[in-house]
C-alpha cells in the first residue's frame, strides 16, 4: 500500500499542534515530564488522528525536507531538574553505569574462555564418558554403594543479619568458609559410618549452581561483602581444598557441575550462552586446571554447556539442573515450593524421555528447600534463612543443609542424609 501524501499545509498544521503541546509543558518523545502524556499523544488528540499516524508524518516530513519541529520549545520544569540531581538519582545512574561496565568486561572475558580452555589447558569438561567405576559389573559380582554429595546455593558473598530476621542466622564470607569445611568433614564421617571398610570405588560430587551471590540485585550489590569476582575466588579456594580432602578418603571423584541464576554475568537471565556467561564457568575451569597442573588423574570434571548434567551411577539415571529453568514458575500457595518443584521434575523427565534419556531422579537447587520427592531431590542451601525469604516469600525458617546419598548397583538410591552445616 503506497504511503499517503503529506502536503505542506497539512504538515504545518500538525507541526503547529505539536509545538503548542511542547509550549504547554508536554514532553517530547523519550522525555518524562510533569504531565502523564507526551507532546505527540496530546497533539494527536487535538488533531483527532492516532499518535501512530502523527509519528509517521514526522518521519515523512523529514524525508520530504519539510520544516522540522522545534523540540527545544519544551522547557523542563525546575522540579524535574532538582529531582534528577538528588543523591539517590545520581547513585542509581552510577550503579547502572557500573553494571554496564561490568557486563562489557564479563562478555569480553567469557568470549575468550573457551579458546583458552582448548589452546592452553586442553580442558574439555563438557564431554565425559561415564567412568568405569560408575558402571555396574556383571551379574553375581557385588559392588559397594557409591556415595554422592550434592552441593548448591552457597551464595558466597551474601550478608545475612540475624537482627533483621528475628531469627538466629548470620551469614557472610567467613561463615561460608566455616560451613563448607564443616560440610566436607561431616561427609567424610558419613562415608566411614555407612561403610566402615571404606572400600568405595569412588564418589560423585555435584555442583548445583549459585555458588556465589553474584550481586544480581541492587540490594545484594549494596550489601554483599565482596564483589562477584572475589566471591568466585573464595569458592574456588574452598572447593579445591574440599575436593583434596575427599580424595584422601576415596580413590576417585567425579565432579558434575551446572551454573545457577546467581552465577550469571549478565544483568538479566539469558537462554543462549547460559553456561559460558557465568562466573561458575570460570570456577569449574580454575578447579579443573589446578588438578590438571598437579597431575592428579583421580578426579574427573564434567560441565556441560547446556547447563544440565545427565549422568548414571550403576543403572540409576540422574539429571542435575539448578532449578531456575525447569519450566515451573509462579505462585505455589500454601503448599509451598513442593508444587513448583514437582511440576518442574515432571516436565524435565518428560522432555528427556522424548530425547531418549530416561531420568530416574531430577536433582535441583535454587529453591533453598531440602526435600525428597518421588522422582527428585531438592537441595537446601549453605546460607540458610535470609531477609528475602522472610519478607518477600514469608517462608518458614529452614536450617542450612546439603544432601548426601548412596546408590546401590541393583536397588538404586538407598540411604539419604541431610547434612546440617550451621553446627557440628
Keywords:
424 residues; 14% strand; alpha/beta; 5-stranded mixed sheet
Concise overview:
With 424 residues, the protein is α/β, with parallel strands linked by helices.
Q: Measured on Cα atoms, how large is the radius of gyration?
A: 28 Å
Number of helices: 11
Query: What is the makeup of the main sheet?
Result: 6 strands, mixed
Q: What overall geometry do the principal axes of the alpha carbons give?
A: elongated
**Low-confidence runs:** none
Category from helices, strands and their pairing: alpha/beta
Determine the strand fraction and express it as a percent band: 5-15%
- Main-sheet strand order equals 4-3-2-1-10-11
What sequence of helices (H) and strands (E) makes up the elements? HHHHHEHEHHEHEEEHEEEHEE
Terminal-residue CA separation: 77 Å
**Helical coverage, percent range:** 40-55%
Mean pLDDT: 85
Number of E strands: 11
Amino acid at each position: 500500500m503506497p504511503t499517503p501524501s503529506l502536503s505542506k499545509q497539512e504538515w504545518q498544521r500538525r507541526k503547529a499542534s505539536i509545538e503548542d503541546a511542547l509550549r504547554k509543558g508536554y514532553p517530547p518523545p523519550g522525555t518524562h515530564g510533569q504531565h502523564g502524556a507526551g507532546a505527540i499523544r496530546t497533539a494527536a488528540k487535538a488533531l483527532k488522528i492516532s499518535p501512530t499516524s502523527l509519528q509517521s508524518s514526522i518521519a515523512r516530513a523529514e524525508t520530504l525536507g519539510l520544516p522540522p519541529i522545534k523540540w527545544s520549545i519544551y522547557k523542563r520544569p525546575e522540579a524535574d531538574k532538582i529531582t534528577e540531581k538528588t543523591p539517590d538519582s545520581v547513585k542509581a545512574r552510577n550503579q547502572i553505569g557500573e553494571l554496564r561496565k561490568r557486563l562489557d568486561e564479563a562478555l569480553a572475558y567469557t568470549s575468550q574462555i573457551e579458546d583458552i580452555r582448548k589452546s592452553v589447558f586442553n580442558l574439555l569438561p563438557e564431554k565425559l564418558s561415564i567412568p568405569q567405576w560408575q558402571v555396574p559389573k556383571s551379574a553375581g559380582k557385588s559392588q559397594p554403594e557409591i556415595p554422592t554429595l550434592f552441593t548448591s546455593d552457597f551464595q558466597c558473598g551474601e550478608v545475612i543479619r540475624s537482627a533483621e530476621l528475628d531469627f538466629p542466622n548470620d551469614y557472610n564470607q567467613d561463615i561460608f568458609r566455616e560451613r563448607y569445611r564443616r560440610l566436607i568433614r561431616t561427609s567424610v564421617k558419613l562415608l566411614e559410618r555407612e561403610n566402615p571398610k571404606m572400600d568405595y570405588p569412588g564418589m560423585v560430587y555435584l555442583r548445583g549452581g549459585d555458588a556465589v551471590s553474584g550481586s544480581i540485585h541492587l540490594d545484594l550489590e549494596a550489601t554483599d561483602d565482596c564483589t562477584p569476582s572475589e566471591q568466585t575466588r573464595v569458592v574456588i579456594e574452598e572447593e579445591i581444598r574440599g575436593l583434596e580432602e575427599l580424595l584422601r578418603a576415596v580413590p576417585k571423584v567425579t565432579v558434575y557441575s551446572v551454573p545457577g541464576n546467581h552465577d550469571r554475568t549478565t544483568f538479566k537471565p539469558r537462554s543462549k550462552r547460559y553456561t559460558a556467561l557465568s562466573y561458575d564457568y570460570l570456577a569449574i575451569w580454575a578447579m579443573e586446571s589446578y588438578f590438571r597442573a598437579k597431575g592428579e588423574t583421580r578426579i574427573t570434571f564434567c560441565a556441560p554447556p547446556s547447563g544440565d548434567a545427565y549422568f548414571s551411577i550403576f543403572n540409576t539415571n540422574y539429571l542435575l539442573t539448578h532449578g531456575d529453568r525447569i519450566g515451573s514458575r509462579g505462585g505455589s500457595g500454601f503448599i509451598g515450593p513442593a508444587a513448583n518443584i514437582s511440576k518442574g521434575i515432571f516436565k524435565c523427565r518428560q522432555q528427556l524421555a522424548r530425547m531418549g534419556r530416561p531420568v530416574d531422579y531430577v536433582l535441583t537447587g535454587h529453591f533453598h528447600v531440602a526435600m525428597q520427592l518421588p522422582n527428585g531431590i531438592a537441595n537446601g542451601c549453605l546460607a540458610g534463612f535470609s531477609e528475602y525469604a522472610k519478607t518477600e516469600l514469608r517462608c518458614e525458617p529452614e536450617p542450612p543443609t546439603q544432601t548426601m546419598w548412596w546408590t546401590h548397583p541393583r536397588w538404586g538410591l538407598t540411604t539419604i542424609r541431610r547434612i546440617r552445616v550451621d553446627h557440628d
